[in-house]
């Protein structure tokens, strides 16, 4: 899970940003000053930074950040109430990768942060495997011991997500957010139905699963094949 650090001194704005990024499946650490956030930046995958902060301004902090060899490549989205072109250019020239003018929509915030994360991460592998299960993401092709599985697109996406994150338990709510998207209006029962359908495709016994395991009270996970035998 990608880790996003947020530095915003306005409490209401900070909590709104945190809420929507967490709802999009990201891990968020939120702070009101640059000093409070300093110790978390080494583990961050992206930074959402307010321009106007008490003490050290966001712009000054960004310039200092770009001089740090360990953090100079950290993707930064700057939040600003300054709409003038010259000020936006100043932020970008100081090292911001993108900017968002207040007030902003939750959808645009999430989209811009995700875009930063995609640009900063290495290309994701297009081939997944877990024992006899193999998946070609580009071709939307899944095979079990060489036999093609006839999956719907949503079944394929769910199986790919769990295979990519084999060993990790996801709640039904997390799976809805990560696979169906935050705007999906259906209930958590949808996840159960798709898991049941995938088990049928995989020939998986829920009582003794080779692949898709129910973790009581928590959710579902893909069993890593190394756990077999």
From TrEMBL:
Gene3D superfamilies: 3.40.50.2300, 6.10.250.690, Winged helix-like DNA-binding domain superfamily/Winged helix DNA-binding domain
Membrane-crossing segments per the record: none
Residues annotated as domain OmpR/PhoB-type: 125-224
DNA-binding interval(s): 125-224
CDD domains in alphabetical order: trans_reg_C (cd00383)
A GO MF label: transcription cis-regulatory region binding
Phosphoprotein recorded as keyword: yes
Keywords: DNA-binding, Phosphoprotein, Transcription, Transcription regulation, Two-component regulatory system
Domain Response regulatory residue range list: 3-117
Residues modified as 4-aspartylphosphate: 50
InterPro entries (UniProt xref): CheY-like_superfamily (IPR011006), OmpR/PhoB-type_DNA-bd (IPR001867), Sig_transdc_resp-reg_C-effctor (IPR016032), Sig_transdc_resp-reg_receiver (IPR001789), WalR-like (IPR039420), WH-like_DNA-bd_sf (IPR036388)
Domain of life: Bacteria
GO biological process per UniProt: regulation of DNA-templated transcription
Coiled-coil region(s): none
Cited SUPFAM superfamilies: C-terminal effector domain of the bipartite response regulators, CheY-like
GO-annotated cellular components: cytosol; protein-DNA complex
Keyword Transcription recorded: yes
Protein name in the entry: Two component transcriptional regulator
């Amino acid at each position: 899970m990608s880790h996003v650090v947020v530095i915003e001194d306005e409490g209401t704005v900070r909590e709104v940003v945190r809420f929507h990024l967490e709802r999009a499946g990201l891990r968020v650490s939120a702070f009101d000053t640059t000093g409070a956030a300093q110790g978390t930046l080494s583990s961050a995958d992206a930074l959402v930074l307010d321009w106007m902060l008490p003490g050290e301004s966001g712009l000054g902090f960004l310039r200092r950040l770009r001089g740090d060899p360990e953090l100079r490549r950290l993707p930064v989205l700057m939040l600003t109430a300054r709409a003038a072109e010259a000020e936006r250019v100043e932020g970008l020239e100081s090292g911001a990768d993108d900017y968002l003018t207040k007030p902003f929509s939750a959808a645009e915030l999430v989209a811009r942060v995700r875009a930063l994360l995609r640009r900063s991460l290495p290309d994701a592998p297009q081939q997944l495997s877990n024992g006899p299960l193999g998946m070609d993401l580009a071709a939307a092709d899944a095979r079990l011991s060489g036999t093609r599985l006839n999956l719907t697109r949503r079944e394929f996406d769910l199986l790919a997500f769990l295979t990519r994150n084999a060993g990790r338990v996801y709640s039904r709510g997390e799976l809805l957010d990560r696979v169906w998207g935050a705007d999906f209006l259906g209930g958590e029962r949808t996840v159960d139905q798709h898991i049941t359908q995938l088990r049928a495709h995989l020939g998986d016994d829920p009582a003794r699963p080779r692949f898709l395991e129910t973790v009581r009270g928590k959710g579902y996970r893909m069993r890593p094949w190394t756990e077999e035998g």
